[in-house]
Amino acid sequence: MRIVAGRHKGRPLNAPQGRATRPTSDRAREAMFNVLAHLGCGGGLNGARVLDLFAGTGALGLEALSRGASHVTFVEPHRDALKTLRTNILSLNEIPNSAVKAHKATALAPIDDPDQAVNYAFLDAPYNQGFSEPALLHLASSGWLGEQAVVMVEIAKDEPLALPPGFATLKEKTYGAARVVFLRFTALSAAAK
């Protein structure tokens, strides 16, 4: 597993042993970031703030940093994955541009400062566990998503995804056993919060 493009192109990433973490393949990651680059929204990765939820190895967030994102917050609750994630951040010298939170996705503390809201969020939850919808709802209601943020959700190819209020589908792509849904967040109304 390697960084696909940008200033860290070709640099290797570690993955934990076993099947608890399912890293997105280099090929699928490249295709996903190509879609992001051509959506025409989100403002582009250059200088963007990014949230990598269910981060695992951190491959998605580290790819974003390599492609010009200014800061990535990685959220991962599992100890083995956290150890690998921290090793990958260190090996790419991205500690100053990263924050690691050892939390479950729905336990992420709210943020009040709109300047800290993210432009992009990546969700790659374990397949067929029903984690994506509650995570989206939590992000929307906790201030993490900026107005017009782009959210990339990776789920199993046949897994349903019910969108909470405030999200609209921009595009869907299938990569092998995975389906990636690209969403735009348009902020919850005060009544919905």
Low-confidence stretches: 189-193
Number of beta-strand segments: 7
Shape verdict: globular
Number of helices: 4
Q: Going across the major beta sheet, what is the strand order?
A: 3-2-1-4-5-7-6
Task: Spell out the CATH superfamily.
Answer: Vaccinia Virus protein VP39
Helicity, in percent?
10-25%
Major sheet: 7 strands, mixed
Domain tally: 1
| Oligomerization category of the chains in this entry | single chain
Q: Helix/strand/pairing class, anyone?
A: alpha/beta
Mean pLDDT: 89
What's a quick, concise take on this entry?
By secondary structure, this protein is of the alpha/beta class. The protein has helices spanning 26-38, 59-66, 79-91, 132-141; strands at 49-53, 71-75, 98-101, 118-123, 145-156, 167-175, 178-185.
Describe, in plain words, how this protein is organized in 3D.
The chain has 193 residues and is α/β, with parallel strands linked by helices. It has one domain: Rossmann fold. Helix content is 23%, strand content 25%. It has four helices and seven strands; from the N terminus they run H-E-H-E-H-E-E-H-E-E-E. A seven-stranded mixed β-sheet has the order 3-2-1-4-5-7-6, with helices on both faces. Helix 2 (59-66) links the parallel strand 1 and strand 2 (71-75). The radius of gyration is 15 Å and the shape is globular. Residues 189-193 have low confidence and may be disordered.
